Amino acid sequence: MIFEQHKIDYDFQAKILELQGKKILQPRLLHITRDVEDSKKLHDLKSRAIIISASGMVTGGRILHHLQHRLPDERHTILFIGYQAEGTRGRAILEGQPTVKIHGSEIAVKARIENIPGFSAHADYNEILAWLMGFNRPPKKTFIVHGEPATSQALAEKIHQTLNWETVIPAYGDEYQLE
After folding, report:
1. Tens digits of per-residue pLDDT, 84-134?
2. Are strands 105-108 and 99-102 parallel, antiparallel or unpaired?
3. Which region holds residue 141: left if phi is over 0, alpha if psi is between -120 and 50, else beta?
4. Does pTM top 0.85 for this prediction?
5. How far out from the chain centre does Cα 85 lie?
6. What is the model's pLDDT at position 78?
7. Most C-beta atoms within 10 A of its C-beta, which of 53, 78, 88, 118?
8. Strand-pair partners of 101
9. Which CATH number is correct for 31-116, 1.10.760.10, 3.40.50.10890, 3.40.50.150, 3.30.479.30?
10. Ranges assigned E (strand) in 22-157
11. What are the boundaries of each domain within the chain?
């Protein structure tokens, strides 16, 4: 695990626990599933459990199997961490759609749905501007190719206002000759 390789960055309390021999990233009841079959066995759990799975926007992978089994049951809570883009299954669930399609079947959404929106692997516009300000010379054009239309437009305007750079938000199928 990447966190195991960077123990120097742990806070004081974590370092103390490590010195005491405690495996802070490997709690006693943690079970890591390494393959699809182990993951599918989680469907048979009768006790309480927290399942942490990838595919943050619920577009593919093992999470689909877990959701297929848990979304229809109001005893479960589905917690999203971070942003759910427009048009994704994760956004549909967060917006309260009564059903979502998973593996060709309409699955009822009866589980409690929660969201912690503050976590994101993407830089915000201040971080992007700070990074752009570090360039030795401005690019001829700055292409904005990620984000929803309104946020892409806002970023383009902010870059133009702050740095006076030409920005482009390409449409699907647009072509540009780079020199």
Report:
1. 888 899 999 999 999 999 999 999 999 999 998 777 667 778 889 999 999
2. antiparallel
3. beta
4. no
5. 10
6. 93
7. 78
8. 106
9. 3.40.50.10890
10. 77-81, 99-102, 105-108, 112-116, 142-143
11. 31-116, 125-168
